[in-house]
Write a structure and sequence with these properties.
Layout lengths: L1 E9 L4 E9 L1 H4 L2 H15 L11 E5 L2 E7 L4 E2 H8 L4 H20 L2 E2 L8 E5 L7 E5 L6 E2 L21 H4 L6 H17 L9 H10 L15 H9 L11 H12 L4 E3 L5 E3 L20 H32 L1
Antiparallel strand pairs: 1-2, 2-4, 3-4, 5-7, 6-9, 7-8, 10-11
Helix pairs in contact: 4-6, 4-9, 6-8, 8-9
Length: about 325
């Protein structure tokens, strides 16, 4: 969507370092997009959430649209995946949860991001919390209202990135929060496998895949994960918006059992037990009357009892015959 520069923003009394994003020329030259960009950037600037990078300014200079945002000390998720490949499941869950919380906040305010992708998710180390990552979702200046009817500009350009674009963005239907959920499902797949769900040689083939093909299975690339993660991704990337999760939080919660390892705690004596929330379900009959090793003895007892009854019966019959003979 544009190029980002490190810049100095100066006012009459203040000076600060910012990230300055210059939008692509074809967007800046679209009159309708330019007008909507200025209007909806102001709405996005009012979003107050710890996982959303705030917008300092949205302006136009020399026919060039630009956004000024805080400069984050970190790197984007796309760079991390390119360097590290498939990510640890627990790390993926943390990223998914935080990015999803940012999107849910925007959706609650009537805004759709419509360009959710690894390149717009920034990871930064939490100050004073070693090993803890803070996730920021950026480019909220390119959001649109949920009442907008299309993902296209007046010049016919798609607003979004093809690898993460929902079917309704492609065919010109209304773009809603469900479109962001689809894209977040694509991001989830890429975090776990190291590549986007659909990789094709041409843009046309890629668009066709989003429109008609089922998402590939995560476990084909990550056999170490439970198969339940496949169902989560497939629902997030359902072709019809109403078949997806109702929120990004619901998506994150559905993925948790597949991504978070069971928590263990110590029992008295040094043994360990799984946390109640993740413990394997108990048997429907936890207290068996007859353990497996006792079965042979039970069978023997039954056989002896039956034998004794037969002997008694034969003895009784023999006694009657003897009495008849005497009589």
């Amino acid at each position: 969507m544009g190029i980002v520069y490190k810049a100095i923003q100066e006012t009459e009394h203040l000076s600060r370092t910012v990230a300055l994003k210059l939008l692509l020329p074809e967007l800046s030259q679209d009159p309708k997009f330019r007008m909507r960009f200025m209007r909806e950037s102001r709405l996005a600037a009012e979003l107050n959430h710890p996982n959303i990078i705030p917008i300092y300014d949205a302006d136009e200079a020399g026919g060039q649209l630009l956004l000024a945002m805080p400069l984050i000390d970190g790197e984007d998720l796309s760079t991390v995946i390119d360097r590290e490949g498939p990510l640890d499941p627990e790390r993926v869950f943390s990223i998914l949860r935080q990015a999803g919380a940012a999107l849910d906040k925007a959706h609650a305010e009537g805004l759709v991001h419509r360009d959710v992708k690894p390149g717009n998710i920034l990871l930064s180390q939490n100050a004073g919390d070693e090993g803890s990552e803070h996730v920021y979702l950026c480019d909220f200046g390119l959001t649109k209202r949920t009442s907008s009817q299309s993902g296209l500009t007046a010049a016919g350009h798609w607003l979004g990135t093809l690898e993460y674009m929902a079917p309704e963005q492609i065919d010109g239907r209304s773009v809603t929060g469900a479109s962001d959920i689809y894209a977040l499902g694509c991001v989830l797949f890429e975090c776990l496998t190291g590549k986007a769900p659909f990789v094709r040689e041409s843009d046309l083939a890629l668009l066709h895949a989003h429109m008609t093909e089922e998402p590939p299975l995560v476990t084909e690339h990550r056999p170490d994960l439970p198969t339940s993660i496949n169902e989560v991704v497939q629902r997030a990337m359902a072709k019809e918006p109403e078949e997806r999760f109702e929120s990004c939080r619901a998506l994150a919660l559905a993925s948790r059992p597949a991504l978070i390892r069971p928590v263990e705690r110590s029992k008295p004596g040094g043994s360990r037990v799984q946390d109640e929330a993740t413990r394997a379900p108990k048997s429907a009959s936890p207290h068996r009357k007859h353990p497996r090793h006792a079965r042979p003895r039970i069978v023997m007892a039954i056989a002896l009892t039956v034998g004794a009854l037969i002997c008694l019966a034969l003895g009784y019959i023999g006694l009657n015959l003897l009495l008849d003979a005497i009589a």
